[in-house]
Amino acid sequence: MQIGIIGLGAMGAGVARNLLKGGHDVVVWNRSPQAVETLVAEGARRADTPGGAFDAEIVFSMLAQDETIEEVVVASGALDAARKGVVHVNLSTVSVAFADRMEALHAEKGLAYVAAPVLGRPDVAAAGQLNVLCAGDPAAVAKVTPLIELFAKQVWPFGDKASRANVVKLAVNFSLASMIETLGEAGALADAYGVEPAALYEVMTGTLFAAPAYKTYSALIADARFEPAGFKLPLGLKDVRLALAAGEAQSTPLPIASVLRDAFIEAIAAGDGAKDWSALAAGAFRRSARKLG
């Protein structure tokens, strides 16, 4: 099957490689040409424009934010150039309002739109073990699911309204950000009394908090291993802001998200903007005049 891929960052490149391994004809576009050349060397074909990637049966996009998708997919004319009957699968984390707009815009143009935001870091994408939250037209979802399964551990269906998948992704990322902040605060408390944060985290992940996310992030925090970033702090701030906007739209207050927003702003102001979002935890140590790591 001919598949277009738009966006070859750490996550998109992992998706593209797994689709290539599945034996598909993969056409790739990315703003940075080096990422394209790397994938071409591995068997993909180059699209000169985003519209070229939309000359396919299925198109996957993995871009950073609403504004980037608007520019690359809509303003560029890529949707207007799309092959008849194409299904666009948006793997990005976007706002609920933008997801609704994209679904309506695709429908106006006779195209199918599926929201499929992913759970997992770049190494998980490369291993083909992502969890994918999927929603949209049932026929379109059924068509793309076998392809998603090439880079997914599990596909989680959320019905025929695309933005529901995005709501779930925002709720999950909000919860992850809350976890990172509380791991930092708990670690700072232990450190204040002479207990190594790593020792605290070992107890937590060996008993009541034996979940993959707690194990992954507590190890990063204990070692202050924030570079290279798998997911940068400004993207975490973006997702918390999107969660707050989604909550406000439905009169659903998220007071902890408001605290997290300020914590992200503080971390970025402290010079950690290029670091992994797990560096959010370092703020708890900074506030008590301690240093993590």
From TrEMBL:
Domain 3-hydroxyisobutyrate dehydrogenase-like NAD-binding: 165-281
Pfam family of the protein (one): NAD_binding_11
GO molecular function term, any single one: oxidoreductase activity
Keywords: NAD, Oxidoreductase
6-phosphogluconate dehydrogenase NADP-binding domain: residues covered: 2-155
Positions of the catalytic residues: 169
Residues annotated as signal peptide: none
Gene3D superfamilies listed in its UniProt record: N-(1-d-carboxylethyl)-l-norvaline Dehydrogenase, domain 2, NAD(P)-binding Rossmann-like Domain
InterPro entries from the UniProt entry: 6-PGluconate_DH-like_C_sf (IPR008927), 6PGD_dom2 (IPR013328), 6PGDH_NADP-bd (IPR006115), HIBADH-like_NADP-bd (IPR029154), HIBADH-related (IPR015815), HIBADH-related_NP60_sf (IPR051265), NAD(P)-bd_dom_sf (IPR036291)
The organism's place on the tree of life at top rank: Bacteria
Full protein name: Dehydrogenase
Species annotation: Hansschlegelia plantiphila
